[in-house]
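Predict the structure of Tol-Pal system protein TolR.
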Amino acid sequence: MTTTFTHHKRRKLKSEINVVPYIDVMLVLLIIFMVTAPLLSLSVDVDLPKSDARAVDSKKDPVIVTVDADGRYFLTLQGGKPEGIDATELSARLSAFVAQNKDVPVFVAAPGGTEYQKVMDTMVLVQAAGVPRVSLMSQPGGNAR
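Done. Here is the predicted structure for Tol-Pal system protein TolR.
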């Protein structure tokens, strides 16, 4: 009589967590976020709110530099009438006026439909003319006091 012994291996239980699927999901999400992140910040429409601020009290009439939607400049010197002016003449006249009147307030104004870049370019032009402090001018909102 022959007896055969069969040896069956017992499997040990694994007490480990398989993290490979989690890594795969993480990499897919990383790729999705990397692709979509630049597309989310292409442009932002900004509609600035109306201001509740009170008017600035000043002893001297301000100098107002206005830029319209077409990029044309208008200069109003201390209570005078606005006159159309080009950029080089604006810079020359403004620097001469501010040199004589050092503490006169200078405001930059623009209608609501004007591009923000034109307003910023105007502020840079005014500061380049030697004006130490430039303020933005706004219309009071409906709930101003």
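The beta strands are 63-67, 73-76, 83-85, 106-109, 134-136.
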